[in-house]
Design brief:
Layout lengths: L3 E2 L2 H6 L19 E8 L5 E3 L5 E11 L3 E11 L6 E2 L3 E4 L3 E4 L2 E10 L12 E11 L4 E14 L1 E8 L3 E2 L3 E12 L4 E4 L4 E8 L6 E7 L5 E7 L4 E7 L8 E2 L3 E3 L1 E2 L16
Parallel strand pairs: 3-11, 13-22
Antiparallel strand pairs: 1-7, 2-4, 4-9, 5-6, 5-10, 7-9, 8-9, 10-11, 12-14, 14-15, 14-18, 16-17, 16-19, 19-20, 19-21
Protein name: Calcium-binding protein
Keywords: Signal
Amino acid sequence: MAKTMWNAVVAVGAAAVFTAMAAVPAGAAEGGASFSRVSFNGGKPIVIGVQEVVEVHGTFRMTTTRRFDYGPTVYPYRGSLEGGDTLWNVIIGSDCRPVAKGVCDFQEWLDIDPRHIDFGNEDAGTWKLAAEVSYVGDDYDKDDLNIPVQVQRATRVTVNAAPEPALFGKTITITGKVTRANWDTHTYQGYAGRTVSLQFKADGTSSYKTVKKVTSGSTGALKTTVKATDSGTWRWNYYGNSTAGAKASAGDHVVVSSGVRVMHGPREMHAAR
């Protein structure tokens, strides 16, 4: 289904993101619509970095017998339904896909830009979903859907395993770093005191297994040692928390050799007869 902008009112309203919603207009009437079958970002946390606009896909069903002129939309909000903050920059939506009389299914694509002037670290945490539709005239309906949405700061994790190759039974040193998006400075900074899992996937196997857990230092640095036993791939895996996203590093492959060299003695020489 093609994406279509709801109309200029929604586009202009995007400039007011992260600010208090407008007061209820005089004579506005709440009610008249119900929302169901809501899916927002597939039920997963919204993880946001420092530069890239994040697009969130949503689907929902609206039931109403009233005529509406734009909307409906579903979006995260925090605080009061009428006077709280909203979390979106642009909302692009589909037209009504009729299901029955007065029942429509919709899709939407909601953009969040971490570079917005009002967006900061305090916006990480739990939000809730609201739904809104504007009717012909001044009336509208705005509902609290009572669906929590987790908004998280993106993390990055690096890894390095050395030496490469390694000798069987000797020590492999595995280092790395975990950093977290700072929405105030638009940079990634060291994430201290995090419990990060060191994982290993042996050659010929398909999954990683946790070997040990390490706590990141004051700069987010990670370091530990293991004994070289099998060739395979090492990585760090951070499982996230309520305000920081989960992230695994890329893998670093290490070949483990036996260290045994086969020596051949001199060939026997025969004198010519």
